[in-house]
Specification:
α1 packs across α2 and α5 crosses α6 (162-170). The chain has six helices and eight strands, in the order ββααααβββαβαββ. The model is unreliable at 1-6, 75-80 and 195-208 (pLDDT under 50). The chain has helices at residues 23-31, 33-40, 51-70, 77-84, 132-146, 162-170, and strands at residues 11-12, 16-20, 91-95, 100-107, 116-123, 152-158, 174-178, 182-186.
Amino acid sequence: MTPLNGCEFSLETPRLTVIPLPPPDFALLLEGVSNLEQARGWQASDECWDAHTREAMSGLYAMQQSAMAERSGEDAVMASNALVWPWYTNWRILWKSENVCVGSACFMGRPDACGVVEIGYGTHAAYRNRGLMTEAVGRMLHWALERPGVSRVVAESELDNIASHRVLEKNGMRLIRQTDTSLFYATISNTPPPTTLRSDNDTTSNVF
């Protein structure tokens, strides 16, 4: 991959490469999923966003740009921005053997004052029930909990989305609250999840 100010990186598992999109690539994604896939040389996933997803991703991109602009007057701008953008971007989940994105995930912003960060994710229908999202989320949890100042990762899952519940539970997250429509999960400590799989090709050892 082409570095973005030396800060582009990816997370590896045996089957997957999990890629947080740098701001220019996130902007390209918003223009159309196929545009990004063609630019990256990935197989077409036939991913089609509904209005809710498009609105959510556009909002996340706006938050990213705002967060980075807040630091524009600080010293070491590139380093500061490198710490910001991964918390506000779409993370593509690439199945290496097929060279196709099977889903995506994102954090909902930087950790709050208590060190809590929220994660969200989704798997394309054709690639469900293979354990791929469990593998990807586990690696992202590991990355997040290794970041300075992060104490816990939380997630909200729709009440009837059993597969999503299993993704979180298999990665050691525990149910902490329930409403009429959602379940809320959290990591029990800042210890990396037990099911995390890492690859010898992981490119994050010197990142942040």
